[in-house]
Amino acid sequence: MKTVEPVKFYHLTQRPLVDTLRLLVEKSRGAGWRVAIRGTDRGALEALDHALWQGPEDSFLPHGLAGGAHDAEQPVLLGIDAANVNGAQCVMAVHSAEVGADDVAAMERVFILFDGYDEEALTHARGQWKALTAAGIPTQYWSEESGRWELKREA
Q1: What residue spans define the domains of the chain?
Q2: How far is Cα 3 from Cα 23, in angstroms, rounded to an integer?
Q3: pTM score
Q4: What is residue 112's three-state secondary structure?
Q5: Nearest 5°: CA angle at 8, between 61 and 102?
Q6: pLDDT tens for each residue of 51-78
Q7: What fold does the segment set 7-154 form as a domain?
Q8: In angstroms, rounded to a whole number, what is the distance separating the alpha carbons of residues 4 and 40?
Q9: CB 66, CB 72: distance < 8 Å
């Protein structure tokens, strides 16, 4: 029986979403995982796609935006649909995208990233935390309030 890894909640207050995503995606790819970045708005995902392409030259991050001819081949795929088109082992939820117990059971790792200055995003993240912990799924809350990522709470 597979051990369920904790869902990692990342409370963004210091760094932009794209920088944190780049860090987490690089670590996930280093573990050999394909990644699905799940959002809720096509326009916001397009902006994120563009920002990821603008990264430093020494940290090229191959990825694609869902809806293309080669979605299944993408090591990192940004999309709205919860379908695991690229065979991801890791999902990163942004812009208040939903993650459920089934997603956690199917993945090696799940990240939920949320903007600490957006009240709707905070409310959504709190709801996700409550729903996942009520389902018996371990969770971790990571904060960057000190300037570096620190584990602040586990359930």
Answers
A1: 7-154
A2: 24
A3: 0.94
A4: strand
A5: 95
A6: 988 877 777 788 999 998 899 999 999 9
A7: Rossmann fold (3.40.50)
A8: 25
A9: no
